[in-house]
Amino acid sequence: MTRIFGPTGSGRRHRILLGTAFSVVLLALFVVPAGAIHQLPDSSFELDKDAVDNTSDARDDWENVFDGTDSATFTTDEGGNGIVEDPFGTTIFTTGGSKDDLDVDSWRHKSGSVPPKDEISNSYAAVYQVGPETRLYYGADRFANNGSSQIGFWFFQSAVSLNSNGTFSGVHVATSPGADGEFCGDPAAGPTCQPKDADDTPGDLLILSDFTQGGAVSTIRAFEWVAVDGTATSNGTLQQVGTGVDCSAAGNHPPTGTAPEFCGEVNGPAGAATDGTPAPWPYTPKFGTAGTFPFGSFYEGGIDLTAFGFGGVCFSSFLAETRSSPSVDATLKDFVLGAFPGCEGGISTTPFDDEVNVGDPNHDTATISTTGLGASAPQGFVTFYVCGPLNADEFCSADPANQLGAPVALNGVDNPAIVDSIDFSADAPGRWCFGATWTDDPNFDDDSDFTETECFNVVQVPTSISTTQTVTLKDSATISATGGGALAGNVRFRLYPNADCSGAITLVDVVVPVSGASPQSVETTPITITDPGKPVLSWLVEYTSTNPAQTGITSSCATENASLDIDDGS
């Protein structure tokens, strides 16, 4: 989403293709106390009636913008040199419907020529961020100075472009009044609305500057597109909201002046000892010497955008124009149309986990950020979605059936703003994808993220298997006697964890009584062996007779043992 001036600089600066405007005096929405738009020591730019850098002054001039040695946050750019050239006859207005107080869809254009005094040769602009202040400096030079000229500059909040059939695409954005219902302070204050209500949402801006009196800047005015109830013309679409001054007029110029926050000036005056000021870039006037701006041919100015309450307004397009007269509803002549690449806002989202088990929770995280000079922190709502299982070429969508929880409101303070969805647990394996939309921000177009980075895998819960072999052992003994009467006594069974029935440790040690006629068989209760650490076992069996007529007996350890090799795969 491209909305206002360029993104804040990385490296030396970013550049903007800013259209030509012979007087470019921007955003004066109310009169403010004199400030520092060109007052030392904290001014950013030399507003000194020429384009040449004063090497004894640390501030920039247009020569620095041209050769790339400026310290601007961003500048205009065409061909990489910061100066926008306007070829002869490229675009001009046509028909009586092309007027500032008519909406864009009423305008018409064609290729053609205009009077030389209305033909712009080059234009340029640079923006500087000085602490909390955003300052715009602007300038232009024209082909001929043999007559007065009036020019203007539109700043559109929506995209405006040219159609091949000679019409314009786009419409104006009108001001939206605040809680008091008034778009411009006290309507009884007169035709100029000052000060502008702080709670208004600004409309599109028109800046008009008139070059009269032999090249001097006599009038600089700012207008806002209000659509209805404006007092600037009978159409009611425009409201004057500010008046600028000539930077070089008595009491305005540094180092002794008051340095107003909104001013413009031309090189001059006519009739001075020299016939112009040097042009740092290629320039040939209709009358005069190549490489020199004749007096009344070079214009520059500046404005503190923050001081006029428009630091947070985002503009998408601009249009520089020349005009037939100072009248606000004058017929328009030459123009240059361009777009601003800055004040961008967008949303990017990432799942918390790239892979989860079926039934395990996962959530989406959205990062919403805005960039550019004066860009406001993101507002509006983020709505999350989830879909799956999906094929490899499928993604989620903003179908209400896919919505994950309620929309999350942004606080309009954090930049970037980071918000999370509620937890989601997939009930089936496969490829699932989150998605999110960012909507309802008054300063930025809606945006969304339904890309591959929003997808994650859901896998089945893994199972495991382990096995254990068991060996069941028991021993039995048969006692017999050839005489002496019935058997009477006990059999003692002992199982040793070795081959020689040695030691005090036994795995089995039980005594089983014996009685009755010979022979008698007895046995142990079965035991289970799982320990592979005891691979050799031996039994020792003793019979103790309680019949005095019979003897006892002990088995041989060597005749009853076992060798075990238990392997459970570990």
Structural write-up:
This protein has one helix at 62-67, and strands spanning 14-16, 74-76, 84-85, 92-93, 109-110, 120-130, 133-142, 149-156, 161-162, 168-169, 205-212, 216-225, 238-246, 262-266, 276-278, 292-294, 298-304, 317-323, 332-339, 344-351, 355-357, 361-362, 364-371, 381-390, 408-409, 417-420, 424-425, 430-439, 447-449, 455-459, 471-473, 476-479, 487-496, 508-516, 520-523, 527-529, 536-545, 553-554, 561-563. Strands 1, 2, 3, 6, 7, 8, 11, 12, 13, 14, 17, 18 and 19 form a 13-stranded mixed sheet that branches. Strands 21, 24, 25, 28, 29 and 30 form a 6-stranded mixed sheet that branches. The longest helix is centred in the first third of the chain and has 6 residues, at 62-67. Residues 1-35 and 185-192 have low confidence and may be disordered. It folds into 3 domains: 14-339, no CATH class; 344-459, Sandwich (Immunoglobulin-like), CATH 2.60.40; 471-563, Immunoglobulins (Immunoglobulin-like, Sandwich). The chain is built from 1 helix and 39 strands. With 570 residues, it is mostly beta strands.
Number of strands: 39
From the N-terminal CA to the C-terminal CA, the straight-line distance is 61 Å
Quick one: biggest sheet? 13 strands, mixed
Helix content: under 10%
Overall number of structural domains: 3
DSSP helical segment count: 1
Into which percentage range does the β-strand content fall?
Answer: 35-45%
Oligomer: single chain
Q: Which class do the helix and strand fractions yield?
A: mainly beta
Shape estimate: rod-shaped
Rg, please?
46 Å
Stretches with pLDDT under 50, minimum 5 residues: 1-35, 185-192
Mean pLDDT: 80
